[in-house]
C-alpha cells in the first residue's frame, strides 16, 4: 500500500512549530531551527499542546454546507478556494483536484502532535512531584486526539446510526507518531468507540477545574464534549448524564445585559468558556462582519423583542446586511469550542426528550434570563415533552449559530425525522441538500486519496 499522506503533513512538524501561546522560555524558543526538534521534557510536551495556532482549530466546511447563512451570487462567485465555494452548494466535485485542505491536514497535525506527546510521556518516568503534571499532559493529549477525531468524523463521515455504524466508513485512526505506519479508514462505530475511550481516560487524568488558559482541557471540558458527542449519537440518556456532570463542576453563564455591542463584546476567557477553539484560518467567509455572509432571514426573524443576542452575535455590515458578529474568541474568527450555554441546552433537550418539561424549561429559562433585557424576559413554559423539545430546539438554533455544530445537528435531526431541506438560490439556480443525503459526508481531499489509497466517500 502507498504511504499514508499524513506522513507528509507531520514529518516536519516538530521542527516548524510556532511559539506556544501559554509558555515562556519553552524549548521551541531556544532549540536551533536547523535540526529536527525532539521534545523530551514535560515543558516541551506542554509547549507542543499549547500551540493554539493549530491545536485549537476545527473544520469549517460543515458550517459552509449548513443553513445559518446565504451568499449573494456575486460574492459566491468571488470565493477563491474551490472547496469553500463548492461546499456551499454540495457539489459532486468539491475540490476540483486541489489538495492541501486545512480541514483535513491541520486536524491530523493535531493527531500527530498528540501521539508524539503520548509516546514521549510513556518513555519518561515522572517524579513524585511531577506526577500531576505528567497526568495532566497525558489527559490533554488524549483529549486533543479525541477532539480532532470527532471533528473529522462529523465532517467526513455519514451521520451516526447505530443500525449501520458497523459498516459505515469512519476516518483513519492514526494512533502512532510513526509516520511510516500505513492506516486505513476505520468503521464509524470503531471511530466513535476510540473517541469515547480516549475521553473517558482523559477524564481520569485532567484537573477538575477550568484552567486560566482556556486552550487547555479539563474535566469539565471532557464532560461537555462527551455531552456533545452523545447528543450527536442520539444517545440522549448519556448526553444528559455528562451535561449534568459538567454543570455540577462549572455552571456559570454570562449576562448579556452587561455586554456592550461592538467588534468584540465578549472576553475569550469569559465565565461561559470551558474550552477554546475556532475554525481553521483559511476561510474568511465566517469571520467577523464578512459582507458576503448574510445571516439566514428566518433565523434572524426568530429572535423576539428584548433578546440581546442579535445585536451581540451578529453585526450589520457596510452593505446593510446582517453578518456574523461577536464571538467568544475575542478575534475575528468564530468560536467553536465548549461553553456552558451549550451544556445547558444539551441537558434541556435530553430532559424534554425524557418527558420532563419542567426541568427542561428550568434550564432554558436560566439561560434566557441572561440573554433578555429585564423588562422583556418572560419565563417559558411547556405542558409536555414534545412542546418543551420544540422550544429547546428553537433556542439551540438561536443561541449557537456559526459555532460549527449546525451541520451535525442537521444530520441527527434528520435521522429523527425532522426532514430539514437546505436550499441555495444562486442566480436563479436552486441547489438542495435533502435529508439524510449521502453528501452529508464531505469528500476526503484528493491528495489524501491519491497517496494513501483509502476509499473515498460516495457522492
What attributes characterize this protein structure?
globular; single chain; Serine Threonine Protein Phosphatase 5, Tetratricopeptide repeat; 459 residues; 8% strand; two-stranded parallel sheet; mainly alpha
Explain what the structure shows.
- By secondary structure, this protein is mainly alpha-helical.
- The chain has helices at 6-10, 13-16, 27-30, 42-49, 61-64, 73-77, 82-87, 102-122, 131-156, 188-203, 219-232, 236-249, 297-301, 309-313, 340-353, 357-369, 385-399, 406-415, 446-452; strands at 57-58, 69-70, 169-172, 185-187, 273-275, 278-279, 294-295, 314-316, 322-324, 338-339, 422-426, 429-433.
- The strands form 6 sheets. Strands 1-6 form a two-stranded parallel ribbon. It has a two-stranded antiparallel sheet with strand order 2-7.
- The longest helix is centred in the first third of the chain and has 26 residues, at 131-156.
- The protein starts with 5 loop residues before the first helix and ends in a 7-residue tail after the last helix.
- 48% of the residues are buried.
Adjacency order of strands in the biggest sheet: 1-6
Number of domains: 1
CATH topology: the name is Serine Threonine Protein Phosphatase 5, Tetratricopeptide repeat
Into which percent range does the helicity of residues fall? 40-55%
Described by its quaternary structure, the protein is single chain
Strand content: 5-15%
Structural class by sheet pairing and helices: mainly alpha
Task: Identify the CATH architecture.
Answer: Alpha Horseshoe
The outline comes out as globular
Number of helical segments with 4 or more residues: 19
